[in-house]
Amino acid sequence: MTDAAISVRHLDHFFGEGEARKQALFDINLEIQRGSLTIFMGPSGSGKTTLLTIMGCLREVQAGGIRLLDEELSGSDEISRIDMRRRLGFIFQAHNLHDSLTARQNVMMGLQVHGRGDAAKQARAADHLLGLLGLGERMDYRPANLSGGQKQRVAIARALVSNPDIIFADEPTAALDKVSGLAAVQLFKELGRARGTTTVMVTHDSRILDLADRIVTLEEGRIVADRAAAGHAHVSAEHA
Ligand code: ADP
Ligand code: MG
Questions:
Q1: Which is nearest to 13 in space by CA: 52, 76, 63, 81?
Q2: What's the CATH code of the domain at 239?
Q3: With a 6 A CB cut-off, is 151 part of the ligand 1 pocket?
Q4: Backbone angles phi, psi at 5, to 5 degrees
Q5: 89 contacts 162 by C-beta, under 8 angstroms
Q6: pLDDT value at position 237?
Q7: Which ligand is nearest to the CA of 24?
Q8: Domain contains 48
Q9: Which ligand has the minimum distance to the alpha carbon of residue 170?
Protein backbone atom coordinates (compact mmCIF):
# COMPACT_ATOMS: atom_id res chain seq x y z
CA MET A 1 0.00 0.00 0.00
CA THR A 2 1.24 3.47 -0.86
CA ASP A 3 0.22 6.79 0.70
CA ALA A 4 -1.36 7.96 -2.53
CA ALA A 5 -5.06 7.18 -2.91
CA ILE A 6 -4.94 8.53 -6.45
CA SER A 7 -1.99 8.89 -8.76
CA VAL A 8 -2.46 10.50 -12.19
CA ARG A 9 0.39 10.45 -14.71
CA HIS A 10 0.53 12.25 -18.05
CA LEU A 11 -3.22 12.07 -18.53
CA ASP A 12 -4.68 13.48 -21.75
CA HIS A 13 -8.33 13.34 -22.75
CA PHE A 14 -10.15 14.04 -26.02
CA PHE A 15 -13.79 14.45 -26.96
CA GLY A 16 -15.23 13.95 -30.45
CA GLU A 17 -13.90 12.41 -33.64
CA GLY A 18 -12.12 13.65 -36.76
CA GLU A 19 -12.49 17.39 -37.37
CA ALA A 20 -14.56 17.79 -34.20
CA ARG A 21 -11.92 16.15 -32.02
CA LYS A 22 -11.01 18.46 -29.17
CA GLN A 23 -8.52 17.99 -26.36
CA ALA A 24 -10.10 18.58 -22.94
CA LEU A 25 -7.18 17.58 -20.67
CA PHE A 26 -3.45 18.11 -21.26
CA ASP A 27 -0.71 16.21 -19.42
CA ILE A 28 -2.36 16.08 -15.99
CA ASN A 29 -0.05 14.88 -13.18
CA LEU A 30 -1.30 14.56 -9.60
CA GLU A 31 -0.73 12.52 -6.46
CA ILE A 32 -3.54 12.69 -3.92
CA GLN A 33 -2.81 11.48 -0.39
CA ARG A 34 -5.09 9.11 1.49
CA GLY A 35 -7.36 10.85 3.95
CA SER A 36 -6.91 14.28 2.36
CA LEU A 37 -9.46 16.80 1.10
CA THR A 38 -8.53 18.21 -2.32
CA ILE A 39 -10.48 20.94 -4.11
CA PHE A 40 -10.51 21.49 -7.88
CA MET A 41 -11.16 25.06 -8.96
CA GLY A 42 -11.19 26.80 -12.31
CA PRO A 43 -13.48 28.46 -14.81
CA SER A 44 -16.38 26.69 -16.47
CA GLY A 45 -15.13 24.41 -19.26
CA SER A 46 -11.63 24.05 -17.77
CA GLY A 47 -11.94 20.25 -17.45
CA LYS A 48 -12.81 19.77 -13.75
CA THR A 49 -15.74 17.43 -14.31
CA THR A 50 -13.91 15.51 -17.03
CA LEU A 51 -10.96 14.89 -14.72
CA LEU A 52 -13.22 13.91 -11.81
CA THR A 53 -15.19 11.41 -13.89
CA ILE A 54 -12.04 9.80 -15.29
CA MET A 55 -10.58 9.45 -11.78
CA GLY A 56 -13.92 8.01 -10.64
CA CYS A 57 -13.89 5.22 -13.30
CA LEU A 58 -16.90 6.75 -15.04
CA ARG A 59 -14.90 7.48 -18.20
CA GLU A 60 -12.14 5.42 -19.70
CA VAL A 61 -8.50 6.43 -19.54
CA GLN A 62 -7.50 7.27 -23.14
CA ALA A 63 -3.88 8.32 -22.69
CA GLY A 64 -1.62 8.33 -19.65
CA GLY A 65 -2.09 6.40 -16.43
CA ILE A 66 -4.17 6.42 -13.27
CA ARG A 67 -3.66 4.35 -10.13
CA LEU A 68 -6.59 4.29 -7.73
CA LEU A 69 -6.20 2.58 -4.34
CA ASP A 70 -3.15 0.74 -5.65
CA GLU A 71 -4.89 -0.55 -8.77
CA GLU A 72 -3.99 0.51 -12.28
CA LEU A 73 -7.03 1.80 -14.18
CA SER A 74 -5.46 2.11 -17.61
CA GLY A 75 -6.17 -1.06 -19.54
CA SER A 76 -8.43 -2.44 -16.79
CA ASP A 77 -11.52 -4.34 -17.93
CA GLU A 78 -15.12 -3.30 -17.27
CA ILE A 79 -15.52 -5.88 -14.47
CA SER A 80 -12.63 -4.49 -12.45
CA ARG A 81 -13.85 -0.93 -13.08
CA ILE A 82 -17.26 -1.93 -11.66
CA ASP A 83 -15.55 -3.49 -8.62
CA MET A 84 -13.55 -0.33 -8.15
CA ARG A 85 -16.66 1.88 -8.42
CA ARG A 86 -18.15 0.04 -5.43
CA ARG A 87 -15.32 1.47 -3.34
CA LEU A 88 -16.10 5.03 -4.43
CA GLY A 89 -18.83 7.52 -3.51
CA PHE A 90 -20.21 10.06 -5.98
CA ILE A 91 -22.04 13.31 -5.41
CA PHE A 92 -22.99 15.14 -8.59
CA GLN A 93 -24.50 18.51 -9.41
CA ALA A 94 -27.70 16.87 -10.63
CA HIS A 95 -28.45 14.85 -7.54
CA ASN A 96 -30.31 11.98 -9.26
CA LEU A 97 -32.61 11.03 -6.41
CA HIS A 98 -35.44 8.59 -7.05
CA ASP A 99 -38.70 10.57 -6.92
CA SER A 100 -40.78 7.63 -5.74
CA LEU A 101 -38.54 6.88 -2.74
CA THR A 102 -38.31 8.66 0.60
CA ALA A 103 -35.11 10.32 1.80
CA ARG A 104 -34.33 7.21 3.90
CA GLN A 105 -34.98 4.83 0.98
CA ASN A 106 -32.82 6.94 -1.34
CA VAL A 107 -29.93 6.72 1.11
CA MET A 108 -30.46 2.97 1.52
CA MET A 109 -30.00 2.66 -2.27
CA GLY A 110 -26.37 3.54 -1.60
CA LEU A 111 -26.07 0.28 0.34
CA GLN A 112 -28.29 -1.95 -1.76
CA VAL A 113 -25.95 -1.89 -4.74
CA HIS A 114 -23.41 -3.48 -2.37
CA GLY A 115 -25.94 -5.94 -0.91
CA ARG A 116 -24.66 -5.05 2.56
CA GLY A 117 -26.67 -5.86 5.70
CA ASP A 118 -30.37 -6.49 6.24
CA ALA A 119 -33.01 -3.83 5.66
CA ALA A 120 -33.29 -2.81 9.32
CA LYS A 121 -29.53 -2.31 9.54
CA GLN A 122 -29.48 -0.34 6.27
CA ALA A 123 -32.30 1.89 7.55
CA ARG A 124 -30.37 2.55 10.77
CA ALA A 125 -27.25 3.51 8.81
CA ALA A 126 -29.34 5.80 6.56
CA ASP A 127 -31.06 7.44 9.56
CA HIS A 128 -27.74 8.01 11.30
CA LEU A 129 -26.26 9.89 8.34
CA LEU A 130 -29.43 11.83 7.58
CA GLY A 131 -29.41 12.90 11.24
CA LEU A 132 -25.78 14.04 11.01
CA LEU A 133 -26.70 16.09 7.94
CA GLY A 134 -29.59 17.78 9.74
CA LEU A 135 -32.38 15.81 8.03
CA GLY A 136 -33.56 13.84 11.05
CA GLU A 137 -37.07 15.23 10.62
CA ARG A 138 -37.24 14.57 6.87
CA MET A 139 -36.40 10.88 6.54
CA ASP A 140 -39.85 9.91 5.34
CA TYR A 141 -40.20 12.75 2.82
CA ARG A 142 -39.99 12.22 -0.94
CA PRO A 143 -37.75 14.51 -3.06
CA ALA A 144 -40.76 16.53 -4.30
CA ASN A 145 -41.31 17.66 -0.71
CA LEU A 146 -37.68 18.58 -0.03
CA SER A 147 -35.87 21.83 -0.85
CA GLY A 148 -32.91 21.86 -3.25
CA GLY A 149 -30.49 21.95 -0.33
CA GLN A 150 -32.25 19.10 1.45
CA LYS A 151 -32.14 16.95 -1.71
CA GLN A 152 -28.45 17.71 -2.04
CA ARG A 153 -27.89 16.52 1.53
CA VAL A 154 -29.80 13.29 0.83
CA ALA A 155 -27.46 12.73 -2.13
CA ILE A 156 -24.46 13.33 0.15
CA ALA A 157 -25.79 10.82 2.70
CA ARG A 158 -26.35 8.26 -0.09
CA ALA A 159 -22.74 8.64 -1.26
CA LEU A 160 -21.32 8.30 2.28
CA VAL A 161 -23.46 5.48 3.66
CA SER A 162 -21.41 2.68 2.09
CA ASN A 163 -18.16 3.94 3.67
CA PRO A 164 -16.40 4.63 0.36
CA ASP A 165 -12.60 4.82 0.25
CA ILE A 166 -12.77 7.87 -2.03
CA ILE A 167 -15.53 10.46 -2.41
CA PHE A 168 -15.81 12.37 -5.69
CA ALA A 169 -18.06 15.39 -5.41
CA ASP A 170 -18.91 17.89 -8.16
CA GLU A 171 -20.08 21.16 -6.57
CA PRO A 172 -21.79 19.35 -3.69
CA THR A 173 -22.53 22.52 -1.76
CA ALA A 174 -23.84 24.69 -4.62
CA ALA A 175 -27.45 24.26 -3.49
CA LEU A 176 -26.71 24.58 0.23
CA ASP A 177 -26.86 27.56 2.54
CA LYS A 178 -23.70 28.54 4.39
CA VAL A 179 -24.31 26.49 7.54
CA SER A 180 -25.26 23.23 5.84
CA GLY A 181 -22.53 23.63 3.20
CA LEU A 182 -19.87 23.93 5.88
CA ALA A 183 -21.43 21.07 7.87
CA ALA A 184 -21.29 18.79 4.82
CA VAL A 185 -17.63 19.54 4.15
CA GLN A 186 -16.79 19.18 7.86
CA LEU A 187 -18.30 15.71 7.61
CA PHE A 188 -15.98 14.86 4.67
CA LYS A 189 -13.05 16.02 6.79
CA GLU A 190 -14.12 13.97 9.79
CA LEU A 191 -14.42 10.90 7.60
CA GLY A 192 -10.92 11.61 6.35
CA ARG A 193 -9.60 11.65 9.89
CA ALA A 194 -11.66 8.77 11.28
CA ARG A 195 -11.66 6.33 8.36
CA GLY A 196 -8.95 7.60 6.03
CA THR A 197 -11.56 8.54 3.42
CA THR A 198 -10.10 10.65 0.61
CA THR A 199 -12.25 13.44 -0.84
CA VAL A 200 -11.84 15.17 -4.19
CA MET A 201 -14.29 17.98 -4.69
CA VAL A 202 -15.05 20.61 -7.33
CA THR A 203 -16.23 23.87 -5.81
CA HIS A 204 -16.34 27.62 -6.37
CA ASP A 205 -17.42 28.10 -2.81
CA SER A 206 -14.85 30.41 -1.19
CA ARG A 207 -16.17 29.59 2.31
CA ILE A 208 -15.00 26.02 1.91
CA LEU A 209 -11.50 26.63 0.58
CA ASP A 210 -10.17 27.07 4.12
CA LEU A 211 -11.13 23.51 4.99
CA ALA A 212 -9.17 21.97 2.13
CA ASP A 213 -5.73 20.39 2.46
CA ARG A 214 -4.96 21.29 -1.09
CA ILE A 215 -6.30 23.40 -3.95
CA VAL A 216 -5.67 22.47 -7.56
CA THR A 217 -6.61 25.02 -10.24
CA LEU A 218 -7.37 24.07 -13.83
CA GLU A 219 -7.50 26.34 -16.86
CA GLU A 220 -8.18 25.20 -20.41
CA GLY A 221 -7.49 21.58 -19.53
CA ARG A 222 -4.23 22.19 -17.70
CA ILE A 223 -3.22 22.37 -14.04
CA VAL A 224 -2.04 25.95 -13.59
CA ALA A 225 -1.68 25.98 -9.79
CA ASP A 226 -1.40 23.32 -7.12
CA ARG A 227 -1.00 24.53 -3.57
CA ALA A 228 -1.41 23.41 0.01
CA ALA A 229 -4.34 25.17 1.65
CA ALA A 230 -5.14 26.42 5.14
CA GLY A 231 -6.44 22.99 6.19
CA HIS A 232 -2.93 21.63 5.80
CA ALA A 233 0.51 22.37 7.21
CA HIS A 234 2.66 21.63 4.16
CA VAL A 235 4.72 24.22 2.35
CA SER A 236 2.94 25.38 -0.79
CA ALA A 237 4.28 24.64 -4.22
CA GLU A 238 3.15 26.53 -7.28
CA HIS A 239 3.84 25.36 -10.80
CA ALA A 240 2.66 27.09 -13.93
P1 ADP B 1 -15.77 22.01 -16.18
O2 ADP B 1 -16.31 20.89 -15.35
O3 ADP B 1 -14.48 22.58 -15.65
O4 ADP B 1 -16.77 23.09 -16.42
P5 ADP B 1 -15.79 20.04 -18.30
O6 ADP B 1 -14.88 18.96 -17.84
O7 ADP B 1 -17.25 19.79 -18.20
O8 ADP B 1 -15.39 21.42 -17.62
O9 ADP B 1 -15.47 20.34 -19.84
C10 ADP B 1 -14.14 20.52 -20.32
C11 ADP B 1 -14.19 20.70 -21.84
O12 ADP B 1 -14.62 19.49 -22.45
C13 ADP B 1 -15.17 21.77 -22.30
O14 ADP B 1 -14.62 22.40 -23.44
C15 ADP B 1 -16.41 20.98 -22.67
O16 ADP B 1 -17.14 21.65 -23.67
C17 ADP B 1 -15.81 19.69 -23.20
N18 ADP B 1 -16.71 18.54 -22.94
C19 ADP B 1 -17.10 18.08 -21.73
N20 ADP B 1 -17.90 17.01 -21.83
C21 ADP B 1 -18.01 16.76 -23.17
C22 ADP B 1 -18.71 15.78 -23.94
N23 ADP B 1 -19.42 14.81 -23.35
N24 ADP B 1 -18.59 15.85 -25.28
C25 ADP B 1 -17.85 16.81 -25.88
N26 ADP B 1 -17.18 17.77 -25.20
C27 ADP B 1 -17.25 17.75 -23.88
MG1 MG C 1 -18.20 20.75 -14.36
A1: 63
A2: 3.40.50.300
A3: no
A4: -80, -35
A5: yes
A6: 44
A7: 1
A8: yes
A9: 2
